[in-house]
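dude i think i finally got it to work??
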Amino acid sequence: MAVVLAAFIAGCGGGSGASQSEKDQATAAAKQAYKQASASGPDLSAGPCISEGLPGLSDWVADIAHDPRQSVDDQPANQCQSYRSGQAHHFVELTPDGQLIRAQ
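look at this
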């Protein structure tokens, strides 16, 4: 588990290689995913993954996290599986209130 966590944190800290336009598109799609997730009623305070693949951006996921990060954000169960497994290479993190933390 520590290895997976370390790999995820290391992956989140590196350069993204995504253009600003792609980041903007991913952020908009993540905010839409947030609206859908929050409307359906799940508790977002634990920092769940809300999209394993954003529409039109299959290499991107959307995740809820805290700013500053909390230990719950580093639990694999609360992270997007497709990012952890390497199927997706970019992510958008939003707060439990839907505010952008980062897109990379």
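The CA atoms of residues 9 and 74 lie 8 Å apart.
im so relieved honestly
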